[in-house]
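pinging the channel bc i need a second pair of eyes. not urgent but kinda urgent?? the chain im working w is below, pasted from the shared doc
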Amino acid sequence: MRRTWRWILGALVAIVLLAVLVLWLLLRGSLAELDGERPLPGLAGKVTVERDALGVVTITAGNKADALRALGRIHAQERYFEMDLMRRSAAGELSALFGAKAIEADKRMRVHRLRARTEAHLQDALGSDPAAVRAYVDGVNQGLDSLAVRPWAYLLLRQAPQPWQASDSVLAGLAMYADLQDPSNPSELALQRIRAVVPPALYALLAHDGSEWDAPLAGAPRGNATLPDASQLDLHTLKAASGAAAEDADAVGSNNFAVAGALTADGRAIVADDMHLGLRAPSLWFRVRLRYPDPQAAGGQVDVSGFSLPGVPAVIVGSNGHVAWGFTNSYIDTADFRSEPADAAVTVHEERIVVAGGADVRFPVRETAWGPILHTHADGSGDALRWVAQLPGAVRMDFADMARAADLDQALQIADHAGIPAQNLVIGDRSGRIAWRLIGARPDRGPHCAPLGFNDNQANQRCAPWPIRSDAAPSLIDPPSHRLWTANSRVVDEATLATVGNGGYDLGARGRQIRDLLATQERFDEHDLLAIQLDERAVFLQRWWVLLQEVIEHSDDPALKRLGAASAHWEGRAAINSTSYRAVREFRTQVLDTLTDALLAPARAQLGEDFLAPRLAQLEGVAWPMLEQRPANLLPPAYTSWDALLADAARRTEAELSTQGPLAHRSWGERNTAAICHPVARALPAFASRWLCMPADPLPGDRDMPRVQTPSFGASQRMVVSPGHEADGIVHMPGGQSGHPLSPYWGAGHEDWVHGRPTPFLPGKAQHTMTLVPVH
């Protein structure tokens, strides 16, 4: 019997080991090819692909089409699953991979019918060089087919990857629209509904669109709100209903800034760019250097380095030796609702959502000349949304021409034809010049269709359905200060704002901190600009710390005394070991939640189920005057005094932190711990999913300072570079180059990003070399 059990146990162990070996071999079968000579059909000549120690790719080719064909091959082998997610998320086709759990997400995007719209206008989207795009697409499919085993994520999902199409590259660009601009435009609709049911003075507070922290490139700060007196608004006399707080005001965006040659030792312009996005493993971006002859490029040669977006045949952000460029999200108004009567002319499109493991879902999309109807009311009327991403020209591959720009003027001409989400472009050239331009698709509204942003929906029926444009954009070229900065807050003056509109600008604190740091020096180099990118000083929260200490000093409450001991030493930065920063940040959150609930309670009572919580990004410009002036008419009715409100917020702060243990141990790093994982990690058990995540490092930084950082949101890349001096440039990227957890490039460079250690902008010495050859 003992022998029998030993045999059974040995057999089980052998089976387990065999299963592990098979799994290991299957996983390794989808690793990208790194060395040797490989055939690539369609090439005109030999292409060299080098990888350095971080997996940064250098492609040297004889022409543009060959370079992009090779780039497509590399993108597919390293990132095909992530590319697939982008096209499917934009098209509303995730259910075909993930099953019924993705149906609602698919409906939110399918209502825009982006695949159908893309295919109807594909030739325009491919731009002036469609052959190069199609070469990239062919390279993608050849790279996928060359893998011994389909990418590992498909094995887990028991799915097969579908071939890449030219329309999918356009959809990958449209996925960035969905990431940077909310496809359902909820805040504009929320404020329109609120405006209809609350006193004008209350609406003016909720819709206030600036603060004393504004730092525009042109024009004056908007300033804080002027508070109404009791004759205009008294919260105690309004019917109210409490509920959840407003939508979190965290912004999807970035920082970029530049200094002109007048501020550097040798006349070089320097551009800094860090795009803040949701973080995952692998990184959203893929670092690449492309080198090939091009008669239209300066000197007849393209040599461009930077960040590509797998799925799109272009370097999105980078430097080509003549110009360097980077982006931040512009937050102009790119979408308008319009009320449509019940008898409006409507076209119904029957969309079919394929569901893995289930029956197809039929999804009717009702559409007027204005756009798809997102909300239908009991009386048959509806709210139709017109969004730039729905329209021809929203994506055009011509922005890839930035790789051949010879100087600032030529780069700005290329920018005028860029089919990308509306962005703040900051650019510098080799001669030391710098410029800002609003780049990308924006509404070309007619005379009866001024952008009303958050102030109203487009109810005026005289407003004709508008097209989009990207030319004749606002700009600031060669600024007299020799400095530029943008950080998702308002950049433009009042006159320009009346044209482009406010799509939800971020609070200006981050931009102002960058502006002020740029003003402290008269000479800069690359490391100086990196120091600004990594600035974690809590300038914005300084006055909130003072306020918290005043509340604690005037109280004998033991809970507040404990909070005072934990927050007494103010480091003044979002450092990982800071308890005071965490306490002050939580205190501000508790105060703002209380004020937000009180300001929204009258609208919630009037609207009931139709109430939508708006995004109140500029609430600081209302809340701080309330705390300074403490008007009785604006005191939330649940409190007898402003002192009571603040003391209650402090007690809730102490209670929130104490639930996790002693206050002295509640550091910022404990809360702000990296959670950067592969998209399929959440579908696996915890013991398995950890292999698909970056280390759970405590992270410095926060949202209202240059070093923006939350556990899964922050700098998706950092770049500091001077065109013509790329060897001195600095770069960071989280998550690594490869999407394969067994690759040497899974997570390579991530630790440098965590700690802010400079990494060279240009690729290093080649560790692997592959030669791609034509097939005759």
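so Residues 455-459 have pLDDT under 50 and may be disordered. and The radius of gyration is 27 Å. — does that match what u expected or am i reading it wrong
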